[in-house]
Amino acid sequence: IPSALVDGSRGRMRCERDRCSALKGEVGKSTACSIYAARPEVCRTCQPGDPECLIARRHYGLPV
Predict the structure, then answer these.
(1) Whole-number Å distance between alpha carbons of 64 and 61
(2) What distance in Å separates the CA atoms of residue 42 and residue 39, rounded to the nearest whole number?
């Protein structure tokens, strides 16, 4: 993971407001991970439609 995307004080991915710094695009339209091949385990385990996905979709007002 590029050091610019790591929150050194917390040892995890850096976020900008309420989204991961590696996420590019517009939520609800088209997004992509800019470090997909090197993404952390927490991102690898997230699956479309899983409980965490549904929470995020509700947060952004997207259909579940």
Answers:
(1) 9
(2) 8
Query: Rounded to whole angstroms, how far apart are CA atoms 23 and 33?
Result: 5
Q: Is the Cβ–Cβ distance between 40 and 1 less than 8 Å? A: yes
Q: Which helix (H) or strand (E) holds 60?
A: none
Give the Cα separation of 39 and 64 in Å (integer).
Answer: 24
pLDDT-derived band at 33 (thresholds 50, 70, 90) equals very high
Q: Determine whether 10 is exposed, middle or buried from the number of CB atoms within 10 Å of its CB (0-12, 13-18, 19+).
A: exposed
